[in-house]
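User: What would this chain look like folded?
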Amino acid sequence: MASLFVTTEELEKDLGSPGLVIVDVRSKPEFIAGHIPGAVQTVWRDFSDPDSDIKGLLDPQVNRLEEKLSALGIGNEHRVVVYTDPFDSWGSEGRIYWMLSYLGHQNVQVLDGGWVKWKGEGRKTQIGFSSPTAALFKATVHPELVVLKDEMKALVQSRADGKCVDSHAVIDSRSVKEYEGAMGPGIPRGGHVPSAINIPWDQFFNEDASIKPKEELCRVFDENKLSENQEIVCYCTGGVRSAWLWTVLQYAGYANVRNYTGSWWEWSRDATLPIET
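Assistant: Here's the prediction, encoded as structure tokens.
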């Protein structure tokens, strides 16, 4: 397994290599205006549950996910590199990285600095749309990487009862304002999940959009009293920013991390679930 992040220099050297699939998860207009040569395009919402109003829920029909990934040209044997504009994506590269990990792909990386760094360094680009060459992807699902509402509810209740306080941590990766109660479109209740700590997702970038050194990441997590021995559950509004934080935690060495994909879209809509402000 290659390192989680790949540098722009390393990727440019590997352009055109057999078995390399580069996935651009920006919008289609942005992709057409310019992208890394050979890349294919998708967005995280392409893999959401089409039968749910909760936008962050992953499609529960694994065969549909397999078909979509195969149509993108992603096979089990391929090396996949995901990128976007880290400053304008809400963590969508992390969402795709998390999803592919959940589905059992063994060789996925995130481009460090993404499109921001690639374009800023004047590296090769191309315009227009691309037609992927279909491949075959078969999933091996890792349910330990996801948390669903009922399990989240049980965890919150256990913590309220004074149980698993030291063994588990719940992290809200939204902004401070959202954590404190600010509401966006489609959000009926403001606040956060009881006992959650706030670690905003967007504090881990350098000025060129690359990831900060591991020691700086670990300092933030240490300040929030996270332990590598804990089970950590991340959430945001729709499981995207939290998937980026999941990715950062993985990179920093926290192996037991899960993503609550329903997140605040789902939690705030259920009036029976507790909130704090």
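Residues 122 and 160 are 52 Å apart (CA to CA). If you want, I can go into more detail on any region.
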